[in-house]
Design goal:
Shape: elongated
Structural class: alpha/beta
Distance between the termini: 33 Å
CATH class of the largest domain: Alpha Beta
CATH topology of the largest domain: TIM Barrel
Number of domains: 2
Bound molecules: S-adenosyl-L-homocysteine, iron/sulfur cluster
Radius of gyration: 21 Å
Largest sheet: 10 strands, mixed
Length: 353
């Protein structure tokens, strides 16, 4: 492996420091930042406002690579899935979910996941390693390459949003997540507003109360059950951070940002999907004074899992019950199921056909 410095993932200040050590003035950092993050250039030779000797010097000093696309599939519903490989051979999957005139890119923060949620395919695969900030950012850069969306105005972008809902638990890689968000939302580069980024966590409590000031993107909490007994059965993290602690943290987050909380709630047949469960969920929210919005997610089965999806009737009844008590509860339809690209179906091996 080369000992060059990986440019993608450096903060602006760090980039400036490196350029200083090469004897360059600090405004070079801004020029290079724009080439890399606004124009999406992958070759220093294209950075035409820099002298040729400097371009060569930079190419000797910095690495400016992307993860490699080793496989890709497009679903009948146009959901696009890529298998990406990093320099050390580790792989993650990334998904683009197109809507009418916009869409979200679903990116990963870890190879595998240590949380072991019972319903999740990624969770059945052990944690291999955290991704670096550069690896988190460069996933989205690959998507922009493919869809040729560099140097476009916000309204013209099809890749309009990012959801950090791929492989891994983002709060177990918190520092790199923070660094990545800072780079992606920087107005002189990729310039994706934090309001268009959603981070989903399984409920690592300590990072929730101050998430708004520390990261500032939208936040979604994977709840999936209305009481500790059920939640602990499917999410081992609940034993470490049980519902009273999680709810307190959510309440603090809500008090800090003055808004509401988004919960993901997976609809598992005969497990968490009855009227009694809905009633319990409503009670829990009232008890902690939480202004909740629930995204009801249809369960996406995968080979070897023990759960079945709830029926549509059940899901609608559950949604109506929540709405009757003043909670928004939209039903999320699965996308890209035919290519195993839907929530909880990602893994890092090449998909067997
Ligand atoms: N690790 C984070 C983010 C990635 S998972 C988290 O757990 O929140 C993104 C969402 O997909 C989570 O809400 C997760 O609970 C959900 N999910 C996991 N497995 C699923 C499956 N098989 N079907 C549907 N959703 C699933
Ligand atoms: Fe990890 Fe999220 Fe899957 Fe749980 S649902 S195993 S936290 S990726």
């Amino acid at each position: 492996m080369s000992d060059k410095i990986e440019l993608i993932g450096l903060s602006k200040e760090e980039l400036q420091e490196h350029l200083k050590s090469l004897g360059e003035p600090s405004f070079r950092a801004k020029q290079i930042w724009q080439w890399v993050y606004f124009y999406g250039k992958t070759d220093f030779a294209d950075m035409t406002n820099l002298s040729k000797p400097l371009r060569e010097k930079l190419a000797d000093y910095f690495e400016l690579s992307r993860p490699k696309i080793v496989d890709e599939q497009i679903s009948v519903d146009r959901t696009h899935k890529w298998l990406l490989e990093f320099k050390d051979g580790q792989r993650v999957e990334m998904v683009y979910i197109p809507e009418e005139d916009r869409g979200a890119v679903c990116i990963s923060t870890q190879v595998g996941c240590a949380m072991g949620c019972k319903f999740c395919h990624t969770g059945s695969q052990k944690l291999t390693r955290n991704l670096t900030a550069g690896e988190i950012v460069s996933q989205f850069m690959v998507a922009r390459d493919v869809y040729k969306e560099w140097n476009l105005k916000e309204q013209a972008r099809m890749l309009s949003n990012i959801v950090v809902m791929g492989m891994g638990e983002p709060f177990q890689n918190y520092d790199n997540l923070c660094r990545a968000v800072k780079i992606i939302s920087d107005g002189e580069g990729i310039a994706l507003s934090k309001r268009r980024i959603t981070v989903s966590t399984s409920g690592i409590v300590p990072h929730i109360p101050n998430f708004d000031t520390e990261v500032g993107t939208r936040l979604a909490i994977s709840l999936h059950a209305p009481n500790d007994e059920l939640r602990s059965q499917i999410m081992p993290i609940n034993k470490k951070y049980p519902l009273p602690e999680l709810m307190q943290a959510c309440r603090q987050y809500q008090d800090n940002n003055g808004g509401y909380i988004t919960f993901e709630y997976l609809m598992l047949n005969n497990f968490n999907d009855t009227y009694a469960h809905a009633a319990e969920l409503i009670k829990l929210m009232k008890q902690y004074g939480i202004n909740a919005k629930f995204n009801l997610i249809g369960f996406n089965p995968w080979p070897g899992c023990n759960f079945a999806p709830s029926s549509n009737n059940r899901i609608h009844a559950f949604s109506e019950e929540l709405q009757k008590h003043g909670f928004a509860a939209p039903i999320r339809t699965a996308r890209g199921q035919d290519i195993l690209a839907a929530c909880g179906q990602l893994k890092s091996k090449k998909t067997e056909q």
